[in-house]
């Protein structure tokens, strides 16, 4: 489904489990920081809104989205972390860097989740331009950080 047809108001909290004792790792890329900060804020607020405790949310930054995978692994390997939420913004440029980064992160995060058997959420906003990224970080297409947090809570109830 195109992201334009789905935004943060779409997620349903009906089946959310009690997360008051769950511990969350947030891994946030510093590239495009003005945008990733908004994603992180959305994720953080969503976790609190659904019952997570402030002291159970561990935020870490990585230089760029490519490093989200290793950052996720550093957190996921700790038994006390229940879910990891990875947030980054990759904007298409003149070269194919975006393709390489996006595919590497998608595969990497999939592997970390499978290796540690816990939710590792792909909150990577991949866009053609800055405007599309802003639209997805508190703009007209919602905040993908909110949706990433909702996905983590959903998966904890699996
Ligand atoms: N990281 C991002 O999170 N978003 C980007 O849009 C982004 N663009 C990049 C473009 C180029 C040409 C390069 C070399 C790196 C870029 N990075 C970006 C950084 C990348 O994720 C990583 O931090 C560095 O390549 C160091 O491993």
From TrEMBL:
TM segment ranges: none
Pathway participation: Cofactor biosynthesis; riboflavin biosynthesis; riboflavin from 2-hydroxy-3-oxobutyl phosphate and 5-amino-6-(D-ribitylamino)uracil: step 1/2
Active-site residues per Swiss-Prot or TrEMBL entry: 97 (proton donor)
EC nos: 2.5.1.78
One GO term describing the cellular component: riboflavin synthase complex
Residues at which (2S)-2-hydroxy-3-oxobutyl phosphate binds: 94-95, 136
CDD domains from the UniProt entry: Lumazine_synthase-I
Stated family: Belongs to the DMRL synthase family.
Functional note: Catalyzes the formation of 6,7-dimethyl-8-ribityllumazine by condensation of 5-amino-6-(D-ribitylamino)uracil with 3,4-dihydroxy-2-butanone 4-phosphate. This is the penultimate step in the biosynthesis of riboflavin.
Name of the protein in question: 6,7-dimethyl-8-ribityllumazine synthase
Originating species: Hymenobacter metallicola
Lineage: Bacteria, Pseudomonadati, Bacteroidota, Cytophagia, Cytophagales
Gene that encodes it: ribH
């Amino acid at each position: 489904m195109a992201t334009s047809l789905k935004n943060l108001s779409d997620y349903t909290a009906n089946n959310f489990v009690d997360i008051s004792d769950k511990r969350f790792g947030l891994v946030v890329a510093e590239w495009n920081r003005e945008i990733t900060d908004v994603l992180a804020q959305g994720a953080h607020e969503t976790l609190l809104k659904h019952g997570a405790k402030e002291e159970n949310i561990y935020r870490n930054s990585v230089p760029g989205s490519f490093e989200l995978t290793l950052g996720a692994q550093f957190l996921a390997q700790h038994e006390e972390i229940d879910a990891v939420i990875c947030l980054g913004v990759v904007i298409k440029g003149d070269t194919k860097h975006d393709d390489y980064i996006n595919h590497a992160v998608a595969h990497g995060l999939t592997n970390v989740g499978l290796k540690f058997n816990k939710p590792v959420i792909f909150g990577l906003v991949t866009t053609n331009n800055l405007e599309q990224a802003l639209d997805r970080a508190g703009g007209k297409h919602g905040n993908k950080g909110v949706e990433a947090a909702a996905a983590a809570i959903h998966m904890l109830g699996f």
